[in-house]
Amino acid sequence: MGEIKSTLDLVMARTKHLTLSEADKQEQSQSQFLARLNGLLQKVYDQSFRFEEFNRAVADLVVEFNVDFRAPLVDALLQKIDPGKDNEVALALLQNSADVDIRGLQLVLKQFQDAFDTVRLVHADRVMRAIADKFLISGSDVFPNLDRDVKWNKTVATLMDQHNIRLVNEKLKIRGAIDS
């Protein structure tokens, strides 16, 4: 009676003559590096890794994969930066781990936050006055639900679009500085 082979044994037997080209090996190595780098970044975002541990782990990855980590790290961090979100971790990593000048990004993000806060106060005041006029309800316990206000949502979308354009330009400047 013949032996029963597993699926893995059958696949291995049929593909043992196949080899990867150098380009395929390089692509696979780059893909593995990026996956591990993203895993390390996630640990920092989850606060299970401190910046020092992250830097040591990235140094180990660089030795293991023999690649330049700066460009992929910058790309991964720039993708995470978004106005209206907490960008402190990404900015700190860009500055400390990738040695990037983040002043332009900080300026755009601060200008967005300032504009957002100003617009929010104006809209909240408008909604609170409308509630007081229409329903005769006012006081310190009245909080407007701006998310349900159509005007507010349009204003926020416009504000985001304006600052995203400026943010993309800052990201391109940083990316250009990395490439040169």
Describe the structure.
This protein has helices at residues 7-15, 22-45, 51-65, 70-80, 88-96, 103-135, 150-179. Helix 4 packs antiparallel against helix 5. The model has no long low-confidence stretch (mean pLDDT 89). The chain is built from 7 helices and no strands. It starts with 6 loop residues before the first helix and ends with a helix. The protein is mainly α.
Note the main attributes of this structure.
mainly alpha
Helix content bin: over 70%
Count of DSSP strands: 0
* Unreliable parts: none
- Rg from alpha-carbon coordinates: 25 Å
- How confident overall, as mean pLDDT? 89
The total of helices stands at: 7
Structural class, from secondary structure content? mainly alpha
Strand content: under 5%
- Which sequence of SSEs, written as H and E, runs from N to C? HHHHHHH
The geometry reads as: elongated
What gap, in angstroms, lies between the N and C termini?
66 Å
Q: Major β-sheet, in short?
A: none
